Amino acid sequence: MAVNESGQRFHHAVYEKFEAVANFPGLDLLFTTADKVLTWGSQNSLWAFPMATSCCGIEFMATAASRFDTERIGTFTRGTPRQCDVMVVAGTITVKMAPRVRKLWDMMPEPKWCIAMGSCAISGDFYRDIYSVVPGVDTFIPVDVYVPGCPPNPDALLLGFKRLQEKIQARREGRWVEPDKRPIDGMRVPSIPRIGAPDRLPVFDQAQLHNVLHMDPDGRMLRPDAPPMPRPPEEDPE
Amino acid sequence: MSALPDDVRAIFERFELDLPEDPPDLLVEEGPLVPRDKLLGLARALKLEAHCLFFVYCAAAHYPPGPASRIPGMGEGELPDGTLVAYRVRRLAGGRPVDVPFRVWVPTGETTPSLVPVWVGADWQEREQYDLVGTVFEGHPDLRRIMLPEDWEGHPLRKDYAIDTPHFPWR
Amino acid sequence: MPLPVPRPFQRPARGATRHVEVGGVRVPYELVVDPWPDPYLDLDAYDPDADLMPINWGPQHPSTHGVLRVKLFMDGEVCVKAVPYLGYLHRGVEKLCEKLSYAQVTPIVDKNDYVSPMMNELAINMAFEKLLGVEPPPRAQVIRTIFAEMQRVASHLLWLGTWAMDAGGALGGGATLFMYCFREREMILDLFEEVTGARFHYNTHTVGGNRHDLPGGWEEKAIRVLDHIESRLPEYEDFLRDNDIFLVRTRGVGRLDPLLAMEIGVSGPSLRASGVDHDRRRDAPYAAYDRVEVKVPVRDAGDALARYEVRMDEMRESIRIARELLQDVPAGPITALKPVKMPKAIKVATGRSAYVGIESPRGELGTFVIAQNERKTAHLPYRLKIRPPSFHAMALLPYLAPGATLSDIVVIAGSLDPILGEVDR
């Protein structure tokens, strides 16, 4: 028996074979051992995709260059999303760039992680209130590690990679607990709730995905023949 | 404006422009206010006769309705909503460069001639000012938005544009 | 329909002189092109049988030096038309600066040209000083000049490393020179970190002077570092100047007409590589440039190789200027105003405007500022316009790309040294 997307249980002949294989004695030991080896391998060879838009990109380059050298911890920089495990969002993300970031994130194969480097990628920093800046990259892609700073020093970014390795290991061992997404007291609430926040409406995910799927290659946001974008419900004036 | 050489001053006088006199304690340079119908003629004269080949910048500033005394050299009275476009061109000949600034007042809803026929460098500059401030340059070959997406509403550097305007669904 | 651009200058007879005088400016004759490529080429009228292929380059590509996007229409391997799209990093800095007081603007503009933040601070504070009528003391002027020249070396080193990487694996593994350049750049960043506490985004210039004084023994240390970098420069030239592949990829690529460059407003090394002898440091001296002799390297070839040579010579020249100033830094205060405690302390209510242009590593970085006319909001600038050199250099791309192959366009765009942070602001 299996469960489909709407929660209904259904039956298919192939699942009997799956269950027979899964119940074979000794296989679980083999799979967990293989999983352990794969996790060890992936956490020690995190290939980074630099989503470098501005100043933090220069510090990312300095981290990859001679003095700091990320390759010591197995992190290698590749210019293509299809071969990478970690997206390092380094720099301010604007509303014109955000659909591209989301599209590149969707291109990356699972398992994938995201590091928000610098205060612009974390919260928008002092550009947070500007009309064209997205207040934090975690309003549209899930972020695993935040590296604060403006820009963070290269050693801070190296520490971010080490923290990500610890997180991958902890998640495999079942030690990882998703932290509470509640913002710090006194910090202003972003105009869009973060991914995973309880007050986030599903219409935001739909609209951001809609924006990516119906993007015009000619520089406009949406194609002229795109269907209407799902909008958040209007607030009752009373 | 004492730094202006005589030939540039002669061109300004030929176009009957008032040169605002600076107080001696201020090291501020501003150009004359040029009527819009004389702009292209002045630009051609500056390029061909005064050899101002180098286009430095074109910057527009939005002024909401109010007294004209906010703008130096504008005189007295009330002004409607509009933008002040400041240009600066440079002559590189003869070692020491000479900067020639001039300004144009454009009421909202009206257009000003584009300087692209004279300096091709005005192309992107005017597009940027149109995008951010909303000044319409007549005769520009390709006047569309350059910084913001093409479906954007409003011009952000206008004084009546809120800095934290939301843009669904990204912010 | 594109407007016809009037061409007032008659092209001289071929072979008459190597240089021609146009509008009082002496330019190399071989570079003058007529007509310039049409940036608004009608593709339907180009060739109905041509199978044009549009290629999107960017906005996220390792060799665009940022988030530039160019739509290239290729006829086979040759580009026919290039349409750049900007604004992927438009952060509304000019709007933000209208909401901040004069004392608060400096750390914001640091982030515009993020490869040489010292230049941004210098340009904006000089404009404010011009508006206020404040003259910084001599010690501050000399420190500013030293910082500017060392920043120029660091910026050119970063450009050299990334551009050599763009020019590809042809240089024996591409990333080698990148590693070498960053090794030297880190030394300069260490020196700045010792003064200001930050690797970049220093926030060290204020209206009327500097915020941080030089620590004891910094001058000797800086001279040692500059000597070391100067001794390393021949090593880089051995890498590139003696490499046949590098010469083939850069010589004659992206030849820039000096008249076009002047009309578009391109300045700095790109303009000087096309034979126009114009440098703000020498022609309109600011800060402490009147204390030293500034030699301006000029090349007549106008191609990517000439731009590389100008930048290499500029590095040597900057090291010489900085060393000369470091040997004799005048004593005295480092700021002309009292240290600003309140952000609203600096007020201008004249309604006047000021423009200051300085020579940044990429060209003329200018700041045009209009002051408020009302006393109530006199601590805020009314309008602040930054004239970024990279914006003008990017406006050149639709003229340089047609006729070049796709691999050449990467070299051409890299040789113009664009920083998208200041293009989009």
List keywords for this structure.
heterotrimer, A: alpha/beta, five-stranded parallel beta sheet, two-stranded antiparallel sheet, 7 helices, 7 strands, C: 425 residues, alpha+beta, Cytochrome-c3 Hydrogenase, chain B, three-stranded antiparallel beta sheet, 16 helices, globular
CATH architecture of the largest domain in chain A: 3-Layer(aba) Sandwich
Number of discrete helical segments of chain B: 3
Q: Helical percent range of chain B?
A: 10-25%
The main pleated sheet of chain B reads as:
4 strands, mixed
Q: How many helices of chain A?
A: 7
Give the number of domains of chain A. Answer: 3
The N- and C-terminal alpha carbons of chain A lie at a distance of 49 Å
Q: For the residues shown, what is the average pLDDT of chain A?
A: 83
> N-to-C terminal Cα separation of chain B, in Å?
46 Å
Along the chain, the helix and strand elements of chain A come as EEHHEHEEHEHEHH
Using DSSP, what is the number of strands of chain A?
7
Largest interface: pair, residues per side: B-C, 56 and 58 residues
Oligomer: heterotrimer
Strand content of chain B: 15-25%
Radius of gyration of chain B, taken over Cα atoms and rounded to an integer in Å = 17 Å
**Looking at the structure, what is the overall shape of chain A?**
globular
Report the top-level CATH class of the largest domain in chain A: Alpha Beta
User: Helices and strands of chain B: which structural class?
Assistant: alpha/beta
Radius of gyration of chain A: 21 Å
Q: Which stretches of chain B are poorly predicted, pLDDT < 50 over at least 5 residues?
A: 23-28
Describe how the helices and strands are arranged.
The complex is a heterotrimer of chains A (238), B (171) and C (425).
Chain A lengths: L1 E2 L5 E2 L2 H10 L4 H17 L3 E6 L2 H10 L11 E2 L8 E5 L7 H10 L5 E5 L1 H5 L21 E3 L6 H19 L29 H12 L25
Parallel strand pairs in A: 3-4, 3-5, 5-6, 6-7
Antiparallel strand pairs in A: 1-2
Helix pairs in contact in A: 2-6, 3-6, 4-7
Chain B lengths: L5 H9 L18 E2 L4 H10 L5 E10 L2 E2 L10 E2 L2 E10 L6 E10 L3 E3 L8 H11 L3 E3 L33
Parallel strand pairs in B: 1-6, 7-8
Antiparallel strand pairs in B: 2-5, 3-4, 5-6
Chain C lengths: L18 E4 L2 E4 L14 H4 L6 E5 L11 E7 L2 E8 L7 H6 L7 H4 L7 H16 L5 H29 L8 H22 L8 E2 L2 E2 L7 H23 L3 H7 L7 H7 L4 H4 L7 H4 L20 H23 L26 E8 L2 E9 L9 E7 L1 H6 L2 H4 L5 H10 L4 H5 L1
Antiparallel strand pairs in C: 1-2, 3-4, 4-5, 6-7, 8-9, 9-10
Helix pairs in contact in C: 4-5, 5-6, 5-12, 5-15, 6-7, 7-12
